[in-house]
Fold these 2 entries.
Entry 1:
Amino acid sequence: MATYPEDCLYTREHEWIRVEDDVGVIGITDYAQEALGDIVYVELPSVGDHFSQGEPFGNVESVKAVSELYMPVSGEIVEVNEDLAESPQLVNEDPYGDGWMVKIALSDPTELETLMSASEYEEYVREEKEK
Amino acid sequence: MMETPCHVSRDEALIFERSRPGRTAYSLPPLDVPTVPLETWIEARFLRTDPVAGMPEVSEVDVIRHFTRLSRWNYAVDVGMYPLGSCTMKYNPKMNERVARLEGFALHHPLTPEELSQGSLEVLKMLEELLCEITGMAAGCLQPAAGAHGELTGLLLIRACLEARGDPRRKVLIPDSAHGTNPASAAICGYSVQTIPSNERGLIDLDALRRAADRDLAALMLTNPNTLGLFEEEIEEITRIVHEAGGLVYMDGANMNALVGIARPGEMGVDVLHLNIHKTFSTPHGGGGPGAGPVLVTAELEPFLPVPRIVRRADGRLALEEDRPRSIGRVRAFYGNFGVLVRGLSYILTMGPEGLREVAETAVLNANYIAYHLKGTYEIAYPGPIMHEVVFSDKRQRAYGVRNVDIAKRLIDYGFHPPTMSFPLIVPGALMVEPTETECREELDLFIAAMKAIDRECRENPELVRTAPHRTRLGRLDEVAAARHPVLRWRPQASPSRAEASPEGAPSERPLSPEP
């Protein structure tokens, strides 16, 4: 069963963000990794790149498809998960932990209000599955 | 425990692994001229000093048996139904092969002067004109070597046209059901890509299109019928919206098999499209290629077409015209994949207008026949009136722990090539079936029976499906390991010292070994 940690906020494109002191850690959800299947490559931006909310910032490639990653909030990349280059399977194994993708310095924390809570996202996923 | 010895015909090694030192497929008479050292003719720095590693030393019978055995492992349109959705794997009539092998075509050198090339030029001119007639477009270029190459050429034409209008724009709109090559082509062409969502019926969401059709809109790329096998009923409104915003409409002709002889993109407001000769017009692909992806355009875009253009001189003779100042330039050496184009023309002429119309009618009928008989068994995500292909999903079978990939692999055991999987992306667990017009009712019935049998297995013995295929020489291959750690080059199992000495001797480059 997919999991939905309470300390994260979620996008409709199945990214999560966990904010600590104006820095947000971003990854894809358990549901997303499950739907994608075995991930074989993750393409991430560089430290210092700027993105606005909703903008594509990279992509994940599984044996089925290549999918874009969308920024949950605006800001500047301060760190990327270098381990994913050699070990993309971390996204499958631990999507909310070792499989994190980027850290971003938020430029507008009020954007967080547009994201879904864990319970809202769980409901959203249930509706997606019904489709 | 002793293992049963396995004959090589059941466990084929690579030709390199068959190699035995000194074994040859020839026997030459003794040398009757003085021997000259190679260094006399070629500078020493160009000569390799290590042994020519890995070149197979084999006999004639080794070679013949090796490749004949491999050919018997193969699956092809000449063996059975190949319902690989979106690929139009129709039978390739042998008449096309015969025509392409005529000496005048097959041996014609591309640098032969124009006056000696009138026959070949006539073939190309005739094909261009027939494709224009079939699509309702004004002019075309046959040079692109594949569909994606056609997309790139088409987008370069759009860019040239918008720049000539003095209104270059930056945005290309692409529906979420599109082929992945569409956004890739747009991005390579320097455009930013915006995705247009599909509505609940699986068609372009017109409101979303209207919102996105702004002053920065360069083009909409759409496939019609789309990858769900659905015809964009609002196509005239769609092209009107794009044109009013100042953009152009690109149509991906991958699914032209549903329209050929019946509906013409030029009359729907399409400005540029590419065709896949290797899909709609029956030339070999999927390993048997190469392809051909001609681009057809409206009169406004004609001046920008790639050079050379085939033009008819005043005296009636054909020429390759290079001097076209507004052209986007060359896109391919010489004039495309000529042999493939000859086959395409052969197909069009042997089918004739009525035959081509029947192609589309039968292709649509066959897909609907399958959809009708399987809709009670497999979920159809977007059940609108379908055209030439039908997209099922594994939604019902997932309850038994079986996924689309398992169903596809199990179909191999029933003698069919698997359908396209996990595409389009908007259908989770997609199984995309395109029977094409060349399957008879008996073959379709066998396919339907196989799909129903697999559904029964999903409920009664899901493990059988999850571990398929069972009747092939190799079982399920490890696609994940192949993608994560690709071994791109075979290397002899050489002594470790040489592998270490070579800078390319990375530890990941293991010799391939088949799964047990």
Note: The domain at 9-126 of chain A is CATH 2.40.50.100 (OB fold (Dihydrolipoamide Acetyltransferase, E2P)).
Entry 2:
Amino acid sequence: MNVIEVNGLSKAYKGFQLKDISFRIESGYITGLIGQNGAGKSTLIRLLLQLIRPDRGEIKLFGLDPSMHEKEIKERIGFVLDESHFYEHLTAMEMKRVTAPFYKRWNEASFLQYMDRFELPLRKKIKEYSKGMKMKLSLAFALSHEAELLILDEPTAGLDPVVRREVIDLLQEFIQDEGRSVLLSTHITTDLDAVADYILFLQRGQLIFHHSMEEIQETYSIVRGGTMHIAEAKRRFIGCRETSIGFEGLAKNAAELTRVLPGANVSPATLEDIMYYTARGGARHGQSIG
Amino acid sequence: MRIIINTASGDPIYQQITDQIKQQVWDGTLHPGDSLPSIRQLAKDLRVSVITTKRAYEDLEREGFIVSQVGRGTYIADRNPEDLAESKLTHMLRRIDELVKEARTLRIPPEQLAEMVAQRYRKDEN
């Protein structure tokens, strides 16, 4: 089943445009939404959550039109946005009393369990929480109403590595049930290298690709070589960095390349490599799925 | 069962999983009927994506090493010893292919490669 389906989605602001985005996300997986600051990640997430309206295109969540089934859909989604949306002068317990009635399937036991697990004080004012604590509190809310889809905007930004790992572990735990899915945006791509199943890559408002991690690992490589092959390399790379002693670049189908660039060294590309060299090269990557 | 993932190695992770499970079937660490963690559990335990463990299990199932059954989960397949010996041989031949390929790029003739193999063999025996 497709948990998210987006067709020809466009949204323009002054100086920014999300252009004709289409993709489908199958239930049961973790999808990472990556891109530089200003690439359109938050705009896309806000469109999915119906916080803003698209100029063109359509969105379906759980196969339903969100403008017709807004309440039902909101029940089935847990979300975390990059800025805190709490009443900061309240304690976590008071905030819970305000929030819980919005959800038919609010699970009090689950909420208290997460609060305990995250070591969050129930009776402390939220404004006294650290950034990491606020993030964990957002997650405790998002995870305590039997949501089937988690939509998280930069959930790991500004968190220390220990908390970041905890958050990622939590997402893997969440999808133990294959009826559940996660979409999270991040520019800390190392969080995704290990656990993401699919990647949506946005750049300047355009969808560069929607691939499984497997396809990405099979398709992209970092190729390094000496100065004598620079000219040849530049023609064939998505992006390339030249130095006085040689080059390093992002390439597709490295096996072919090594025939034209004898002696070149090939290693797997990380998501960060792909983002960096795509931003430098500005090249299109070809066909995407969805 | 024991699986160790090395992200620095160039080998794809799904292959590291299948290789290690096969190895443990061959050396008798895993027996027919032994149950394996679910795709999702294994992904979580190894901190890899679900797609990765799914692909590993699909490959293992296609090659007859494991069986997945609704309700019973995933377990090591019951195979006759000849089948197992054959799969072991195929695996070895594939590794020999890699060796031959490397020898070719280094321009090592077959006789020399055979002698190198024989030498290692004798060294291990002593």
Note: Chain A has a mean pLDDT of 89.
